[in-house]
Structure formats: C-alpha cells, structure tokens
Amino acid sequence: MNKEPIYFDFASTTPVKQEVYEAMSPYFLNHYGNASSSTHKQGVIASKAVKNAKNQISKLVNCKESEVFFTSGSTESIKLAISQVFYNNLDKGNHIITSNAEHKAVLDTCKDLEKVGAQVTYLEVDENGKIDISLLEHSIKEDTILVALMHVNNETGVIADVKNIGAICKKKNVLFFTDATQSYGKLPLNFQEENIDLLCFNAHKIYGPKGIGGLLVKTTATTKSGTLVKQRIESINLGTLNVPGIVGLGKASELAMTKLESNYNRIHHLNSYLQVELYQSKRAAVNGLSASRSPYILNIQLINQDAESFILKNKNSVSVSMGSACNSRLIEQSHVLKSMGLSKEKADSSIRISFGSPTTQSQLDVLLNAIKSGNN
Question: Quick one: DSSP state of residue 291?
C-alpha cells in the first residue's frame, strides 16, 4: 500500500483536529437550531454556542466578544473590511495604503476599488520583504483613510511590525487593517494593545474547518466621516450563522491558546534545524533571510533546481508548494518574490515549506534528502 506523501503545506490548510471535530459534531446532528431563533430551546442552544466561540476567540487575541464577526473566511473578511472603510469615507478621503507583497485578496480588492475612484499607494518592500516604516508614515496624506498591511506574509513568513504600524496610524488618525491569517493562533496577538482597528483570521489554518473565518472590528474604530465601522459591518453581516463551523473555529482557537508557546518553540526548533542543514548542504538559500520571520513558514531558493520539476519529481514522497494556494494554478512568477527583487529564474526555483503540529525532524530529513539528491 502506497504511503501518503509527507505534508509540508500547512500554510495552505491544516487537517481538522479530533477535538474540533468532536466539538462540532453535535451541532450537525442534535443541536441544529438557528442561532437567531430565540423563541425556542434549539435556537437558544445554538446562540449560546456562538457566544462561547466568541469568548474563546476573545481570550486568544484579547478582543471584546462584541468585536467578533463571522465570515466564510479571510478573503471575504478582507473584501468586507477594505470596501466598507472605502465606501463609508467617500466624502472625506479615498486614499488607501498597502504593499505590493500583500495577499492577492487585498491586491485584487484594491484594484477593484481603483476602478470606482480609490487612490492606492502600493509600498515597495526590500530584498527581505520588509516595508520602510518611515516611508509608510510619509505616505499618509490628509485623504488617507486606511492602511492595509498583513501581519505575517503567507509566502515568506516575514513578520510586519504591526504594533509600530498601528501606532503611526493612530497618530495620523487613519484606520489600520491587518490580515492575520498566518499569525492567528500561532504568534502572540493583542488586538487591544497593538493599535489594530480591523483584523481577519481563518479557522482552517489552525486545525479548524474550512469555510469559516472572522473579522475583528474595534468598537472605537471610526471613519473620517464619523461612521462607526462596527455598525456598518453589523448592518451587512447578516444571514443564518454557520453554527457548526463557528463552534469549530472557537474550539480550534481555544486549543491554539493552550499550546501557543510550546507549539511555537517546537516549530522554531524544527525550522532552525532545516535552515542549518540546508546551509551546510549548499543546496538552497532562504528568501527573506535577514527579516524577522514566523517559524511556521520557510521560503527557500533551490540551487540549480527548478521548483516545479522538484515538486513533480517528489510528489509521492513530500508535499510542498511554490507559494500561496491562491496562486498555485497561475503559471506566473510569485508577485511576493518579484516584489523582493528576485529574478524570474530565482523565483521559479523557490518553494514554500510550512510546518504544522504533525511535523517531525525525521520527516524533515526526508525532505532534505529529496533536496540534496535533486541534482544527482
């Protein structure tokens, strides 16, 4: 019987944990009430489950339960956050600041808004994938309404200084939105203290179900037109709630909180081990080497190997990717690596390795052997 290839694509998605599955199961089979129906027991049970999930999320990232909104995932959250801030600021400003290394969902939303009058500044990143904080501050104008910058880059793992970015935005009276899809449940996040106004996250990146995510909206976040963003989101974030999915997201958040530090330390050790072995083998170089990076993601440049060929050759033994799952079907250079100044040849030789709870050192040795034997 053929073995499944070893999975190294946890930044794309993760398996649902048994505890999460068991928490969700009753809300498919027994507690099937609509959380908006408060006139009977079934609805009350569902409503309490949603409230409990909000509590689990709030404990993980230090937000208020009332600041949690549920969506189908990060892409919906991104479009909802950016578009609502834009459309509710039309009389005061239309300028948005982001970077050219953001997730496609952010870039696509900004491109769509440019068609209806938005002015967007796309900050460049350096060879390590970092923006210039001073350039960000100088780019903020009187009509700037939003800064949208991700916390952890989904392709390289480069970490943005969200606390400093948020402080600048607060000083300039500009809203700050961060895509925390790759940091939620993995790195410490403090929604109240880091001057973040809007933040999105996803369940299936932390061993929860697909099709459910969230958007945090700070109670005090106000557009320049004087509109409370939270009120606008509340008015359109309607419909029947996905109670089983919400329960799964809440449980996954709870589990992530209990093992946040131990998981980080273990993954950091594995990431460091892999980097040392790759350096000594002289078969790969790390993209974004000098930047502060999440240990959960490692983007490497294979030496004298084409990434696509490597992936196809080793598809029965290891599962890695060439970058974001959202771009994997597009035969084009990674826009993130391109923004870092990598040539097409180097970008086409790069693969993303992402670590998860099941990852072991012996599994990494299999991957290392595949990389080392690539030119043999």
Answer: S
Q: Are 229 and 84 in contact (CB under 8 A)?
A: yes
Task: Report d(CA 307, CA 113) in Å as an integer.
Answer: 34
Query: 56 phi and psi, to 5 degrees?
Result: -65, -40
Reading across the β-sheet that carries 284-286, which strands appear in turn? 284-286, 297-302, 350-354
- Give me the sign of the Cα torsion angle 17, 354, 125, 166: positive
**SS3 readout for 71-117:** ECCHHHHHHHHHHHHHHCCCCCCCEEEEECCCCHHHHHHHHHHHCCC
DSSP 8-state code for residue 222: B
Instruction: With H, G, I as helix, E, B as strand and everything else as coil, classify residue 137.
Output: helix
Digit-by-digit pLDDT tens for the chain (376 residues) are 468 999 999 999 999 999 999 999 999 999 998 888 878 899 899 999 999 999 999 999 999 999 999 999 999 999 999 999 999 999 999 999 999 999 999 999 999 999 999 999 999 999 999 999 999 999 999 999 999 999 999 999 999 999 999 999 999 999 999 999 999 999 999 999 999 999 999 999 999 999 999 999 999 999 988 989 999 999 888 889 999 999 999 999 999 999 999 999 999 999 999 999 999 999 999 999 999 999 999 999 999 999 999 999 999 999 999 866 554 444 567 999 999 999 999 999 999 999 999 999 999 999 999 999 875 5
Give all domains of the chain, ordered by start, each with its CATH number: 6-15+259-372 (3.90.1150.10), 18-258 (3.40.640.10)
Element (H, E) at 317: none
Catalytically annotated residues: 326
pTM: 0.95
Sign of CA dihedral 19, 25, 30, 34: positive
Is residue 33 a contact partner of residue 46, using CB atoms and an 8 Å limit?
yes
